[in-house]
């Protein structure tokens, strides 16, 4: 039986082909999950923790999307830089889903904003604007990975070339996370949970190139493989 992979969705006021507001998710993530042999399940945003808990129990793995900036209030700070797409209700929803996934010790692939939310949900903080943003905003660059990390094992390399699209990054690392990948400027590019079976965060966008880059597709393949165990 194919595993169910939960994606926390987003609200949107409109989309082509729909008359009313919609619940959305990035298609590239769902495509990568399907190629890996999983079934993507979109959970609409909700404040009902019981709905989150029941959905988390029924699904086998989780993918957290990229997107707008996490509100600094979520990690106990005030806004000190220009931020984009802040949605505090989405922050709370995704943090709740993340904490359920962690508590259940189910496999997680957290991408870009999701990578940052993983850190925030566990008590870490963020850099609100990188001084080296030009090196990370819609660019391809190498990441150096620890050779025994989940990401290196999944991708089969310690120096993947990745598509990067962000201006924020992890500042203070949460106690339960380990840095396993960095950019040459020192930016944290990949983390993993120190005690969980397979909870991984990557600052780049593997879904963008997964259809042509086997190394990036293999992150989704490994997530689905773990979800089947």
TrEMBL record:
Gene Ontology terms, MF aspect: gamma-glutamyl-gamma-aminobutyrate hydrolase activity
Cellular component, GO annotation: cytosol
One biological process term in Gene Ontology: polyamine catabolic process
InterPro entries assigned to the protein according to its UniProt record, in alphabetical order: Class_I_gatase-like, Peptidase_C26, PuuD-like
Protein name: Unannotated protein
Organism expressing this protein natively: freshwater metagenome
Lineage: unclassified sequences, metagenomes, ecological metagenomes
